[in-house]
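Researcher: I'm preparing a figure for a lab meeting and need a structural model of a single chain. I don't have an experimental structure, so a prediction will have to do for now. The sequence is pasted below. Please return the structure as tokens so I can convert it later.
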Amino acid sequence: MRDQAEAVGADLSKAIVDWLLTIVEDPRRRLKSADHAAAWFVQHLLEVTESAKSKLTQMQTYRDLLRQQLLTGKTPGKATGIRWLPARKRPQGPGKRNYKFVDYCWARLGEIALQSTLTIFASAHQGMYPFTQDLVLCRQKLTQFAALFAHDPEILRMRNARTMPVPNVIELIPGQARDLASAAAAVVDQLPPEVFRHFDDNFQVEVLNLQGGLWGMVSGAGDPDLRATRRGPSSLAFWEMISQKNDLAQVMKEKLLVRARPIILSALKDIDAARLFLDSHRPSADAEQALMEHLEDARPRLDVPGGWLHLALALPVSPDSTTLFQIVTRRVADLPVTILESEDDVILSFEAANLPLRSLVDGLTGDDPSSAEMAKKVLTRVDVAWSFLTPETI
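Model: Understood. Here is the structure written out token by token.
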């Protein structure tokens, strides 16, 4: 009977674990919900086990009392102990002594039932315990996986320090944020909840299910090496093992990014540089002043009379771009302006033409005598063949 009870407990724990796994694979619930449910089951098993132990102790005491009565023939003056079955449900036996014997049999049967119940509870708890431990480790592993996407300001600062800045380029980020991480968080916070649900459902079907589900990926259920690793003292070993298995963590990261990019681009489809520029310079007077400063910075530094100046203004198609165009044409009304269409950026480009060559040279060299002296040295170098510059060869 003990073997049967252990088998029933094992089947019970397997059914519970299978149900918990459906929670793990549910994009709306996942590991945290499964962890809470498993904790409730374990606590419930402990409580009912204590209750069954208490009842078993009482039943054993009651059975011992009945046994003593049967051996001595003594009958207590009033009812003592507990009854396994109510009087109305107990079969009527012929004779008082037979009645005591039947009562003893029912008590013994109750004791056996409670012992089997405790065996079932113990077997169920034993079957669930490894799963609850795995849940804790798998949540740690997913936390480490999430760290692959973490934005480290110090790393970004060092990377920017090694990268040469692009001249005459101003980066604008959404949400009036101070850095890219804050801007990304602001964009994601504005996404509707159904976007995340749809994303999770598709990723579960298209990616995770092909890897044996989320549980199969993080627990290594389909790989004996990974499954052995998950019992180690540190879950860092898991991702080290993963890196030797075709870098599964990196593959999952890339698959997530590929599917996330269209969502973010869709959220940014109505945001362009013109809008970001106006949003970052509120009120409008500040935006106008900032735009004029950028125009002045973009002007050619050579002040050569006799030529003409032309502004090419590339703007995305949007109401905010119209606002910028109106500011430019109002503040520099005497300057020819050509409007070009840009996908996202705002580009200010001046073109200078018809500049007299002599005036241009004077503008470049100025009154510095060393410039003329340097020109003479270049023309008198004997190691350079200047014949290709003679009028006959040009």
